[in-house]
Design goal:
Elements (H helix, E strand, L loop, with lengths): L1 H21 L2 H18 L1 H19 L11 H23 L4 H4 L2 E3 L1 H8 L5 E5 L5 H12 L3 E5 L5 H12 L4 E4 L3 H10 L3 E5 L9 E6 L2 E6 L1 H9 L3 E8 L7 E5 L11 H21 L19
Helix pairs in contact: 1-4, 1-8, 2-4, 3-4
Length: about 300
Amino acid sequence: MKEIIWRLQAALFYLFTLFVSALPRSGSFRIGRRIGLVLFAILKSRRVIAIDNISQALPFMKNHPAWTGEFETAEEIARTTFINLGISIVEVCRLYHGKDDLINAIEVVGVENLECAREKQRGMICLSGHCGNWELMSLSFKRFFDVNVWAIARKLDNPHLNSIVEKMRMGYGNGVIYNKSSMRQILTVLKSGGAIGMLADQAVFEDNGALIEFLGRKAWANKAPAIIAHKTGVPILPVFIHRSAPAEDRHVLTIHPEYTLCGDKSEEGICKDIQMFSRLLEAFVCAHPADWYWVHRRWKRAGQPI
């Protein structure tokens, strides 16, 4: 029965991708907005998580130098976040069918930082978070810079849906490395001069994480980016993407200068580096609050607010 349900889900999703890819960009964008509003209305548990996350982070964000004051309430940010997610779903569907006008319209800031990292000929780690349309971000590296990015990902429970998403990612020349077999493949890609895309805001378990501060609360963060960089000497580039305006279909890709590791390979030094990565992500979230994925439980397993 599970297999039948999985196949049905994948078939329905594929038909939806055909539908939205056949529409003009403006039409698919409007559908994406509506999908986001519907999700905001019907996914009560996720809506509650998002509003709670934002409510607890809002006092910190409003005192951050990057805060723009564009939003007033947690519900307003959450609603726009869901709209952006709806648009992102439609964008991914269009990308699956080769509608790469989305990539062509991206504004890129900080190209010189990528070129400096590439000159080292060691490969690179592109460190980001659940920001904007993160799928679009990795695909743009191939288009603009001819850099193949291998994304670290978790397989979807539905293998047929996973195949659709995997085909979209790999269809543009990028690759996917799944968590359970990641380290050996990561090192192979880096040795060949490739790029690894990693997300710095996943809520990992204590065994694999560093306890850091993020938006005013304790959170577990993955230590792998710092450990790999220390081990291989590859540069780490913080990279973020956001919509040019809330709920719009144009994007800005920002490539920051290479992060310089603190030089301390001890557990304390690794935690210090991970904390600094999180500060960069923190600044992004404060500047573009509706472009971050508030609907996941980022602070789980980390105890009480700081």
